[in-house]
């Protein structure tokens, strides 16, 4: 099965896509990926199921397009003037996304383990987001906030953001408003000590 074609529909096609993807979000939030069906999505979206089958083919196609739609949003990483501030702001955005509609976020992540199409789309989305956020590390290096030499930007970003996903998704813990700043501070301290330098850390 191939992924849905990369296209940016307009007019009625765009409206149908928006209705269907809104329905997928609602279905995931209410019943998780286990209860997601083409028929249920079509009914909630108010479109004929043949329309959904023709464009998305199956549940995997719906999930893949939903994840791809997230990557179409015009988003830029925070620019606060410091590495710690940027990472804190980024973590605050992540925490909000995981707590405003937590059942949807968890369901979508779980779905990627059951759909090859969704898994591929999610990998592409993560790759794009990390690539976008590498500018945060580049700016910090330019300000002299990081040790001389190359810094593993991806490793630093993962270290700063991972605690949010661990607490919210894996542990299902209550939101901690202090966690974004605390996780960012820990990553900055590790980076300053050379943990993410090209040499793999200090001796």
UniProtKB/TrEMBL annotation:
Residues 14-74 form the HTH tetR-type domain. Keywords: DNA-binding, Transcription, Transcription regulation. This is TetR/AcrR family transcriptional regulator. PANTHER family: HTH-TYPE TRANSCRIPTIONAL REGULATOR RUTR, TETR-FAMILY TRANSCRIPTIONAL REGULATOR. SUPFAM superfamilies: Homeodomain-like, Tetracyclin repressor-like, C-terminal domain. InterPro entries: Homeodomain-like_sf (IPR009057), HTH-type_TetR-like_transc_reg (IPR050109), HTH_TetR (IPR001647), Tet_transcr_reg_TetR-rel_C_sf (IPR036271), TetR_C (IPR011075). Residues 37-56 bind DNA. Pfam families: TetR_C_11, TetR_N.
